[in-house]
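Usage

Read records sequentially. Each one opens with the input sequence:
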Amino acid sequence: MSTTIGKDDPILVAGAGGFIGGWLVRHLHEEGFTNLRAVDLKPFDDWYQLVPGVESRVADLRSLETCREAVRDIAHVYNLACDMGGMGFIEANRAACMISVLINTHLLMAGKDAGLQRYFFASSACIYNVALQQDANVTALREEDAYPAMPEDGYGWEKLFSERMCRNFLDDFGIQTRVARYHNVYGPHGTYDGGREKAPAAICRKVAQAKLTGTDEIEIWGDGEQTRSFMYVDDCLYGTTRIMESDIEDPINLGSSELVTINQLVDVVEEIAGVRLRRRYDLGAPKGVRGRNSDNTLIRDCLGWEPDTSLAVGLEKTYAWIHDELARAQRPLSSAAAAP
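and closes with the structure output:
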């Protein structure tokens, strides 16, 4: 059942203080949606983007009562709320990632009672069977490759369980649930340090730091030959809203099919920055599966579209933002050092 969500329909974005959630709120607001509610656990000072003119709340959606209040008078929910980060964070915080299952479960329970019409759940490529991702020359993952189930521990299991919960609420209660499996989303206004950053932002930060400090070395986790595809945030936003309004009832990949090694990712960022760095490989660092790519056959068939922003174009914008953020942070130190 496809539908067009009205510009005045009340919409909740859960996880609105995060990277993708913040961009989604801004995107909806700029597209003319007038009745938006943005909710996140973090205090406002820690939100990646706070959009003027949008009702914004700080609330812990792991609580059922909090979810009941969040969905009050709401027709549609985009759920992007979870505790997550890059591979280093995921591998070290499996229990914390699993606890996010409370958010999806309680939002669905509250939504059922509130008469919710549409519900979008942001899943992840981490739900895919890890046995299929042991070779850098990976066969692109199709939606049916999720079963038999052997996702990444913690975060992957939480996402896969929540996918099934969405399907059950569709079948049993008629809530039109939609699920997209995100593949490595990146872009400006995201995490680029502190341990939660993902590979594109981490590499942009390391290259920018090397350029700003005049060093000639970069550390790479693993041997650099592990492969991934990376989706620029604009493609993620467009795909998310298209899937939300579609009649696609089963989980669907939302990711780029442009497969690169981490070494190639570094090549692209170095080219953008105009530097060439000596590479030091940390073979003991967290590195996840050996290879992962998105098979986009289904999304092309269903929507006549797939994410198509090239890595070079997306990284140029991402690198510029991260470089400017780092440079801005260094200026007070430079000024202080120059003071008499």
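Summary fields computed downstream for this record:
- The domain at 199-228+259-327 is CATH 3.90.25.10 (UDP-galactose 4-epimerase; domain 1).
- Residues 118 and 176 are 5 Å apart (CA to CA).
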